[in-house]
Amino acid sequence: MRSKAIFWLIFIAVTALCWLDYQYFTEGHAQQLSPIKRQIGHLGILAVITPVGYLGWKAYGVSWIQKLWFVAYAAVLVIIMVVGLIQWKTSVFGIGFLDQISRLRLFFTSPLPYGMLYIINKVVKSQQNR
Known about the structure:
Elements: H1 2-26, H2 35-60, H3 63-90, H4 95-108, H5 112-128
Helix pairs in contact: 1-2, 2-3, 3-4
């Protein structure tokens, strides 16, 4: 029972982190920040969400979701940092591609992946119990 409470507390923490990212680095106060500070803020929040969500899945006790969470978030962090570095050095990417990277970041800095994995886990469990 304690592990489920931790799982849901982590869900609330992930949601709060996502709200902070959206409020302070996407909308709200974002216009007052320089682009580099906003980008660092986005990456920082994403980097914090990764281990926080991992702890939630660890408490829930489903190892394959833990691994999926970590691999997905690590891959997204690497993609965003590599694209950002290439863009900073060469300005080779167009607005459309950068918008897609921004949407990728926005998806992973939302509580949606955490909730989706929870639903996937429930579906898998119900299929196994048939």
